[in-house]
């Protein structure tokens, strides 16, 4: 294929109409800023079909949610939280202290972001797993203000599993708001929703657009990463099992109609068998209509070699990359662009979504070329510190003066010179 044909074949389904979408999202943001809670209640009625008197989850609602979950369900949530916590605690970095020159000490220290807003989607299905992925690192980092926004069900209640995770992870305030309006509420604050410094979480194209827009506004809030509709790319050879490949494709396709799934294989027989398996498995799965919409813009691509498959994958830069080839780990060095990688026959992407321990909030739309998946560093700020002794300034100061002179910034040079003059007996430079 030509370069243009390749680009067309790999284009995400939501990458058309971006300008119109941003205009609509901008209007929602403006409405929320102007009307606050009233706008949120209105949008919730229009978009979610729920009539709310207030948007914050009450203590009674929290208590009721706990009662709806079985012991087995709570045990599963607790085990997932434990694994995610173990993996993220291992990412906590120690401060750095280096004496770069005699008497010149440079440090890097970490501070938690003061206030974070955690968006938990519930469009096609509620995602308590997303609440785990966001709330666990926020708690480990020590972010003081942690709030969750999640769309309500039509009866006006929040998903009980999401509320259970909030309690298990120490998030006291949960708001029944979804979509772009939730991002606007957290970025700017309303009468009820506190303003946060940074918004986190995956979501629809509307949510992603809202995150990008508020992050470009100094009065808004930073974003974690562009995490929109889900996507997966599977690289498979003739040794892969078609039923496993099809199951992995469908696991991502069921997220939403605008999710994208791609199979890249060296085996025509596997490709044909996978297409048959997709049809067989779709018929017995609960979200068949969503699956069929998503599969309509899926891609099955034949390549001449596994090396070519990895080249194509790196060009696409998938959110999830599943490698079902012989000796999968040996190919890992070939992966340059991917949000999260799943190696071998026995590693379905589902495990990363829920409970292996890695974070499932990952860059989409090809942003894996430059962005990483969510980690502890996203919930902290890295602050540098420097401290010079008098001898350190005597030794290194002339270097700074010379560079300041090269740049024509004599006030910079002066800040060093007045100190050196004082050290040399008080004469003014």
Describe what you observe in this structure:
By secondary structure, the protein is of the alpha/beta class. The protein has 3 domains: 18-99 and 110-225, Rossmann fold; 229-372, Rossmann fold; 389-423, Up-down Bundle (Single alpha-helices involved in coiled-coils or other helix-helix interfaces), CATH 1.20.5.1300. Helices cover 45% and strands 16% of the residues. The chain has helices spanning 3-9, 18-35, 37-48, 59-68, 71-89, 128-141, 160-168, 179-188, 205-215, 242-253, 268-283, 288-295, 306-316, 349-354, 390-407, 410-423; strands spanning 96-101, 104-112, 115-119, 145-149, 173-175, 198-200, 222-223, 231-236, 260-265, 299-302, 320-324, 340-343, 380-388. The protein has a 5-stranded parallel sheet, sandwiched between helices. Strand 8, helix 10 and strand 9 (260-265) form a beta-alpha-beta unit. The longest helix has 19 residues, at 71-89. It is globular and about 90 Å long. The protein starts with a helix and ends in a 6-residue tail after the last helix. The relative contact order is 0.13.
């Amino acid at each position: 294929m030509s370069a243009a044909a390749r680009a067309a074949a790999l284009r995400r389904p939501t990458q058309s109409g971006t300008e119109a979408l941003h205009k609509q999202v901008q209007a929602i943001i403006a409405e929320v800023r102007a009307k606050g809670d009233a706008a949120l209640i209105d949008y919730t009625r229009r978009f979610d079909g729920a009539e709310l008197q207030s948007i914050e989850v009450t203590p009674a609602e929290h208590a009721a949610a706990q009662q709806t979950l079985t012991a087995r369900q709570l045990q599963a949530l607790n085990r997932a939280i434990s694994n995610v916590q173990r993996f993220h605690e291992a990412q906590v970095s120690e401060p750095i202290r280096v004496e770069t020159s005699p008497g010149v000490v440079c440090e890097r220290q970490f501070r938690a972001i003061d206030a974070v807003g955690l968006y938990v989607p519930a469009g096609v299905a509620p995602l308590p797993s997303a609440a785990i992925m966001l709330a666990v690192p926020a708690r480990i980092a020590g972010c003081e203000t942690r709030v969750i926004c999640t769309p309500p069900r039509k009866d006006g209640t929040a998903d009980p599993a999401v509320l259970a995770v909030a309690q298990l992870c120490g998030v006291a305030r949960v708001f029944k708001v979804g979509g772009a309006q939730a991002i606007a509420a957290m970025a700017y604050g309303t009468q009820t929703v506190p303003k946060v410094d940074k918004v986190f979480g995956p979501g629809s194209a509307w949510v992603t657009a809202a995150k990008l827009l508020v992050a470009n506004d100094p009065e808004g809030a930073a974003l974690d990463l562009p995490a929109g509709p889900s996507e997966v790319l599977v690289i498979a050879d003739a040794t892969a099992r078609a039923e496993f490949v099809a199951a992995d494709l469908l696991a991502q396709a069921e997220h939403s109609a605008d999710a994208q799934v791609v199979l890249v294989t060296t085996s025509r027989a596997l490709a044909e068998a996978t297409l048959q398996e997709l049809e067989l498995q779709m018929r017995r799965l609960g979200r068949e209509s969503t699956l069929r919409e998503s599969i309509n813009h899926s891609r099955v691509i034949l390549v001449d070699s596994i090396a070519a498959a990895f080249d194509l994958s790196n060009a696409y830069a998938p959110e999830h990359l599943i490698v079902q080839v012989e000796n999968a780990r040996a190919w890992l060095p070939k992966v340059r662009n991917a949000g999260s990688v799943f190696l071998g026959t026995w590693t379905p992407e589902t495990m990363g979504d829920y409970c292996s321990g890695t974070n499932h909030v990952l860059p989409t739309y090809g942003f894996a070329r430059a962005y990483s998946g969510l980690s502890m560093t996203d919930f902290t700020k890295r602050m540098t510190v420097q401290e010079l002794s008098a001898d350190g300034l005597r030794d290194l100061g002339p270097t700074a003066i010379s560079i300041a002179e090269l740049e024509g910034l004599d006030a910079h040079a002066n800040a060093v010179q007045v100190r050196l003059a004082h050290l040399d007996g008080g004469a003014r430079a």
